[in-house]
Amino acid sequence: MFQKRAFLNWSRRYRNDQYPFYSQRNVGHVLRLIERIPMKYQSRSDRKKRLYKLIVALKDIVDARHACSLFGKEINSTASDLYYPLLNSIVISYSKPFVENKGLGPLPGGWRKFKDRKLQDTHDRLLKFRHDNIAHNDRSTAQVRIIPPGAKLAGQQTTALGVSWAITRHILDLRTFELIWNTIEDLRVRLMQAIDEEMLILYGLSQLPSEPFELTFDDGL
Q1: How far apart are CA 16 and CA 219, in angstroms?
Q2: Per-residue pLDDT tens for 73-91?
Q3: Rg (CA), the chain
Q4: Distance between CA atoms of 105 and 5, rounded to whole angstroms?
Q5: H or E stretch including 164?
């Protein structure tokens, strides 16, 4: 019950409050949208699969946005205990729509393209960071050091009474996170626009039931 309620609240908030596109379009706009869509996308089943993929991708991007917002509030140093857990959350959530999965596959290649060069570079860097540093552990991404008693680590005197250890990982500079936020926002808005257009084309002229129904991949509702 909690999971269903959480999703419904999220769906209502992001559709109506933050992006009112869906409620402002009329029937004439729906017809114009349908007319300019290439014939290869006219299959209702294919459009529903595309809508599913877009909605799931948007939820992942919104998760990355929440983690990035929390990062901005809580992190002021790469030495913070929360730095790497929040970085992991941002990178993993952001990357999910672009990697192979057991569902309908990743988003089409066009979603990897950004008009702004800085955002494009940030997108590419996030996916590379996920592949090189987060998706797996090896000696190139995680180095373990054994620290003798009284030895210095990163110029600081250690205080452990016995032999201890430390692990070092690759990080992203704190100044990068403003660009990460902007990249997430660019993608979020584009996804919401695409979802609203698909919703209008699929359901804008349909007679709908009074109760919620599952998005299936047939040619029906």
Answers
A1: 27
A2: 999 998 899 999 999 999 9
A3: 22
A4: 27
A5: strand 164-169
